[in-house]
């Protein structure tokens, strides 16, 4: 009998944990607004608190949490009346499905709350109370404790994602929607960088916290083009607009859009449009 080894699909994967701590704060406490290239979960264990994440702002009550996606500015603050106890864990993950949980209040069911309590308890058996970061393993840390923290977090995330998927909607269709949103966010990021000097694929990967091959594959599936070729084409489209609507010289346009030289800009423009910049301006202005 031939045995077939089936590779198991991973919906979510926790690669590293950066912070993991519980804290009680006064009603007037508010954190600084911060931004980092990893995920953060803020779970309210007791009381009431406000939060902001990107352009969203809201209130959490006991048993609710919010997930902040990488590179989204966020913070938390008291309501001036109630003290509050919260738990924060931040982690690295390249799982695109997590976008379904980002920056909105989520109410944890009793099983989810039990998993949070398990993470807190395991953290106390593995790491010193201080500093918050970097996490310092105890000399006699619980065997397998660090792995258990990762497993508890993955189990929590899978449970939340199952709830996030609507009735009759498959995880595949949900993932397709998330990838479409990711591509739209990438396009917006590249549009903002049209006048940046030497924006690279590494910059895009850093912004969205994905590997180069995965981001490239997602973008090509949606757009039929590579990320950087699409970006280069958008620069040429912007140059075409400037030729018609501005008084900038061809050299000034090439410099403002950070082409390597006016000559390179003219060659690229001619290949894309079919006319050199000067002829295009004269013909269509």
Note down, in words, how this protein is organized.
The model has no long low-confidence stretch (mean pLDDT 88). The longest helix is centred in the middle third of the chain and has 22 residues, at 171-192. Helix content is 44%, strand content 18%. Helix 1 (110-126) runs antiparallel to helix 2, helix 3 (171-192) crosses helix 5 and helix 6 (227-245) packs across helix 8. It has 285 residues and is α+β, with helices and mostly antiparallel strands. The strands form two sheets. Strands 1-7-2-5-8 form a five-stranded antiparallel beta sheet, covered by helices on one side. A three-stranded antiparallel beta sheet has the order 4-3-6, with no helix packed on it. The chain folds into two domains: 16-164, Sandwich (Jelly Rolls), CATH 2.60.120.280; 167-285, Homeodomain-like (Arc Repressor Mutant, subunit A, Orthogonal Bundle). A hairpin with a 2-residue loop joins strand 3 (48-53) and strand 4. It is built from nine helices and eight strands.
Short key terms for the protein model shown above:
285 residues, alpha+beta, Jelly Rolls, Arc Repressor Mutant, subunit A, 2 domains, 3-stranded antiparallel sheet, 9 helices
Would you identify the regions where 5 or more consecutive residues have pLDDT less than 50? none
H/I helix tally: 9
Tell the overall outline.
elongated
Number of E strands: 8
Give a quick account of the main beta sheet: strands, pairing sense, barrel closure: 5 strands, antiparallel
In CATH, the architecture of the largest domain is Sandwich
For the largest beta sheet, what order do the strands appear in spatially? Answer: 1-7-2-5-8
CATH secondary-structure class of the largest domain: Mainly Beta
| Average of per-residue pLDDT values | 88
Order of helices and strands: EEEEEEEEHHHHHHHHH
Q: For the record, what is the CATH homologous superfamily label of the largest domain?
A: Regulatory protein AraC
Distance between the termini: 75 Å
- Tell me the CATH topology of the largest domain: Jelly Rolls
Which secondary-structure class do the elements indicate?
A: alpha+beta
Taken together, the total number of domains comes to: 2
Percent strand: 15-25%
Q: What is the CA-based Rg, rounded? A: 24 Å
Helix fraction, binned, reads: 40-55%
